[in-house]
């Protein structure tokens, strides 16, 4: 009879240990999943969920016409979605030989409008025009000022390998594993 009494007591004592172990295993799975997903976030191109997108892959650009400086252009830019026939953000920057901006135009653009990127100096007016195009949500923050940054910047889709797929199954594995501990 002593053995029959000891066994249920031992079983009762093991229950909190098993529960604590199950919670610890679940937390490890959750933390490892969050870490795996966080490394895939591109913090330079985060899409703000301000309003619903009008169509798939829609985006916004800073938009202004003949602004006197970049600050005012970006500050007062219209917050609206680009038309469906555009894929890029275009920036046209006119400035003097001393580097003083004379006009800035930013807008949504098609591929055809982005063919003539780069800087061109006009000897007649002593002004320089630099044009750049970029792909992505409000990517046209900065101004093109020389041949280094007056470019056509296009993102290339990253191909995912099978290495990231198992992280999606971690919660499922946790829920399958926890009942075995209990």
TrEMBL record:
Entry-linked InterPro entries: LYPD6-like, Snake_toxin-like_sf
Membrane protein topology class: Lipid-anchor; GPI-anchor
Key words, A-Z: Cell membrane, Disulfide bond, Glycoprotein, GPI-anchor, Lipoprotein, Membrane, Signal
A Gene Ontology cellular-component term: plasma membrane
Pfam entry (one): UPAR_LY6_2
Keyword set includes Lipoprotein: yes
Location of the protein in the cell: Cell membrane
Domain of life (superkingdom): Eukaryota
An example Gene Ontology molecular-function term: acetylcholine receptor regulator activity
Primary location group: membrane
Name under which the protein is recorded: LY6/PLAUR domain containing 6B
Organism of this sequence: Suricata suricatta
Gene field: LYPD6B
